[in-house]
Write a structure and sequence with these properties.
Layout (H helix, E strand, L loop, with lengths): L1 H5 L14 H5 L3 E7 L11 H5 L12 E8 L8 H12 L3 E2 L4 E4 L3 H12 L8 H5 L10 E10 L9 E8 L12 E5 L4 H11 L6 E4 L2 E4 H6 L12 H6 L7 E4 L9 E6 L10 H9 L5 E7 L13 E6 L3 H13 L5 E7 L2 H4 L3 H10 L4 E6 L9 H7 L1 H9 L3 E5 L5 H11 L1
Parallel strand pairs: 1-2, 2-3, 2-4, 13-14, 13-16, 14-15
Antiparallel strand pairs: 5-6, 5-12, 6-11, 7-10, 7-12, 8-9
């Protein structure tokens, strides 16, 4: 933004969480920087906007746009949300200023292309060096956390294994977050993946290299980096110079500070070659209990709890239950009992995460209503949106009472279907 302003281009910075498709219809030009997490999903702050991509068309014929898509090539759905946003913009008449730019980690070449394309918007040129000095709100620092417990919650499930993972901060560090917040972790490559790469490259893990201004072993640097596809034998230092760091992974927090630990709900993912995803593999397999990782808490105002005791409807499936669980804990702790949970998964026998806890809340009256959709437990598939539609009358009554509605789970399938049902109420 500062670089564009230096070239005389007026700029307004906004999160997708604050925008609607109609806002874009009124804009002449827009630049998007969007990331993709996990299996092609947007960040939490963009989920509400992403659900609107399947809604009614909007006339964007007057909009010209540029798009920088951030992602991780280790995933089959690399930059998928960025490309879906690009297709949606084009299908509604918007014209691209330049082709979509994909960026994996700190890809200097992709960043240079982005800067060059933005330079077309300001004939007088852009001051990128001056922009580096722009005052920024400091991000929280990464700090050491310890993995203290890990348990597979669906050992007999037909889907991918899903784990409850518990972390505690380093000695003396405070536990501070609220329901809806995110934890970002810095994953590491598995020891086996690093060993295989080094064997192909014919290099030693103990080779000393300089990286990020300090001396380290090549093996340690590789563990923190995206492994190049080309493992041709060469010089250890030259290899280290070309490495890019692994992007951090973001997860919804499933607990509150009062629980004494930070809990996650992590489903294993698989890359195109069948290998475990970097983040989920690190948390569910490769990092031993008692091992340490680097993490930081990121506030998520777009998913923050309401400030009053209004009714709350929580809708989700799969690991989306993590953030909803934290919200329920906060509501129950504050004495707010008008809570309605609608949750879906494959099978009640294997995939009803936190069953005992949720059942006890319902029996105690902390959940006014609980609707469950286990798609494989009957001949015809039943999903969250089906339960929601069947309860349309009560849903409308809750909405008239001013209910806050929170949706968390898979963007493809559930989210647009839920959005469609809500739009009918």
């Amino acid at each position: 933004a500062a670089a564009l302003r230096s070239g005389g281009v007026p700029v307004r910075v906004a999160s997708l969480a604050t925008l609607s498709p109609q806002d874009l219809a009124q804009a002449g030009r827009a630049l998007f920087v969007v990331s993709t997490f996990g299996e092609g999903e947007p960040p939490d702050s963009a989920r509400a906007f992403a659900r609107k991509l399947s809604a009614a068309p909007v006339d964007l014929g007057g909009l010209r746009f540029g798009l920088l898509a951030l992602g991780d090539r280790a995933y089959a759905d690399f930059c998928d949300f960025g490309h879906r946003l690009d297709r949606w913009l084009r299908s509604n008449g918007a014209q691209p200023l330049f082709p979509v730019i994909e960026m994996d980690g700190e890809d200097g070449r992709a960043l240079s292309r982005w800067q060059a394309d933005l330079g077309q918007l300001a004939p007088a040129g852009l001051d990128w060096e001056g922009a580096e000095g722009e005052q920024r709100i400091p991000e929280p620092a990464f700090a050491p956390w310890t993995l203290v417990q890990r348990a597979c919650l669906n050992p007999q499930g037909a889907g991918l294994p899903t784990y409850q993972v518990a972390l505690v901060p380093g000695e003396g560090a405070a536990l501070h977050w609220q329901a809806g917040d995110i934890v970002e972790i810095r994953p590491r490559q598995s020891a086996e993946a690093v060993e295989r790469f080094l064997a192909r490259a014919g290099l030693s893990a103990e080779a000393r290299v300089m990286h990020d201004g300090r001396a380290d072993t090549l093996g340690a640097v590789l563990a923190r980096s995206a492994l190049p596809e080309d493992a041709a034998a060469g010089d250890a230092q030259a290899l280290a110079d070309g490495l890019t760091p692994l992007p951090q992974r973001a997860y919804s927090i499933a607990s509150l500070p009062a629980d004494g630990r930070l809990e996650l709900l992590v489903r294993q993912s698989r890359a195109a070659d069948g290998s475990l995803g970097i983040g989920s593999g690190f948390l569910t397999v490769h990092l031993a209990e008692g091992g340490t990782l680097e993490a930081r808490i990121r506030p998520n105002p777009a998913f923050a709890p309401p400030e009053d005791g209004r009714p709350m409807i929580l809708i989700g499936n799969g690991t989306g239950l993590a953030a909803l669980r934290a919200h329920l804990k906060a509501r129950i702790g504050a004495g707010h009992g008008r809570n309605w949970l609608i949750f879906g998964e494959r099978s009640a026998a294997s995939d009803f995460y936190f069953r005992d806890e949720i059942t006890s809340w319902r029996e105690a009256g902390a959940l006014s209503r609980l609707d469950l959709a286990f798609s494989r437990d009957q001949n015809s598939r039943v999903y969250v949106q089906d339960r929601l539609k069947a309860a349309a009358g009560e849903l409308a009554a809750w909405v008239r009472e001013g209910a806050a509605i929170y949706v968390c789970g898979s963007l493809q399938g559930m989210a647009p279907a839920v959005d469609a049902v809500l739009g009918e109420v």
